[in-house]
Amino acid sequence: MRVIYIITIFITSVLTGCNDQKVSNTSAKPTVEQDINEERLSDEELMDLVQRQTFNYFWAGAEPNSGMARERIHMDNMYPQNDQNIVTTGGTGFGLMAILVGVERGYINKSEALQHFEKIVSFLEKADRFHGAWSHWIDGTTGKVKPFSEKDDGGDLVETAFLVQGLLTVSEYFKEGNDNEKKLVERINKLWKDVEWDWYTKGGEQVLYWHWSPNYGWDMNFPVGGYNECLIMYVLAASSPTHPIDMEVYEKGWARNGDITTDRIFYELPTILDHYEHDDDPVGPLFWAHYSYLGLNPKGLTDQYGDYWNLNVNHTKIHYKYCVDNPKNFKGYGENCWGLTSSYSMSGYSSHRPGRDLGVISPTAALSSFPYTPRESMQFLRYMYEKQDSLIGKYGPYDAFNLEKNWYVPRYLAIDQGPIPVMIENYRTQLLWKLFMKNKDVQNGLKKLGFSYVN
């Protein structure tokens, strides 16, 4: 059974304690920071609006002691016990990039961002680490690990990769700056060099393992292989100047000796790489097309297994065509309302995709796909702000909704809000792609793994 399915089970067991409640679409309209004018907003104005709101999750909504991204923000104040100070490693990586968007869009100035980044780096320098990797969740007040599940109380290499992707992007942004900015870059480089990527091969196995715990060792037993959201982990592991993996780990572990490729076609589009765990899983949830590609530019990116632009475009269009086709006849699905990914649902956290469709639309799915499907994503953005604005709050669209059951909750998750401003900015200016792909270590790692990259 593939790793993504297993981890979803653990996520569900943790998050179902949230006791998601039904909230009618007819409830009082949430307050947004910028009212939508009676005159129709232009496409550019709509993108500005959603980028600013989602950026604010990581700015105004940051955990105050650490500066890190809170795992979740519930506007209804319904939290699991002792949860409001829990910060997320991967979500913070996304947030670092979202804050750079905020600087470039004029929401904050560069010195404000620098101070915030210094706070985060100071926290990360003192937080629990496990052979250089951070845990999935951290207590934002103490820096101590917050177990994600019973045995997940140590290093999480996937979440660490998402964080490092953001850190390296920040370092590229500031590396030619003033003395304080260069000091931040030096500190980030030390954090980067201290991650022991090769240690997570479990003593030299030709695959990377997701978790290690000082109390349970390798008991989680999640070797990461086959296509999912984790490509960035292998790229960074190969790119490390201090603890690198060799190409064989990528070929045998991630690519499974070439079995990662597939000739499967869905809605007349090749899936290119092996997305599915079962016959009813033709493609994964859409976050697979987002998390690794916030910094890693798929345009012109190829290796011996596939073309990563075509991979992500097809993946996204399959989701779009599935929702337009609407084989389960869910209310609302269509050209303007589409996009399935892991998010809250009526019964906790769930991994939504064709084949596992509960009628739940997750706004991050379509909005974070702007580079791949600009017309279709704009249709969804306009639909949300013009037709479903009761599903929008302080930090942008709420995490998920189901029109069939008249259900939503006024809640946010960092890992869902973070890709929205970043990927919209990559569509508009390629800002984060340009920064991350400039990193010399990353360039060396891509070359080592056999990638070709044409900007």
Question: What this model shows, in words?
Answer:
The protein is α+β, with helices and mostly antiparallel strands and 455 residues long. The chain is 39% helix and 10% strand. It is built from 15 helices and 19 strands. The protein has helices at 3-15, 43-58, 89-104, 110-126, 157-174, 179-193, 231-239, 247-254, 308-325, 363-367, 374-387, 414-417, 419-428, 431-437, 440-448, and strands at 72-74, 86-88, 137-139, 145-146, 155-156, 208-209, 211-212, 223-224, 265-266, 269-270, 301-302, 342-345, 348-351, 392-393, 396-397, 401-402, 407-408, 411-413, 452-453. The strands form 9 sheets. It has a 3-stranded antiparallel beta sheet. Strands 1-18 form a two-stranded antiparallel ribbon. Strands 5-7 form a two-stranded antiparallel ribbon. Helix 2 crosses helix 3. The model is unreliable at 1-38 (pLDDT under 50).
Helix-strand layout with pairing:
Elements: H1 3-15, H2 43-58, E1 72-74, E2 86-88, H3 89-104, H4 110-126, E3 137-139, E4 145-146, E5 155-156, H5 157-174, H6 179-193, E6 208-209, E7 211-212, E8 223-224, H7 231-239, H8 247-254, E9 265-266, E10 269-270, E11 301-302, H9 308-325, E12 342-345, E13 348-351, H10 363-367, H11 374-387, E14 392-393, E15 396-397, E16 401-402, E17 407-408, E18 411-413, H12 414-417, H13 419-428, H14 431-437, H15 440-448, E19 452-453
Antiparallel strand pairs: 1-18, 2-3, 3-4, 5-7, 6-8, 9-10, 11-19, 12-13, 14-15, 16-17
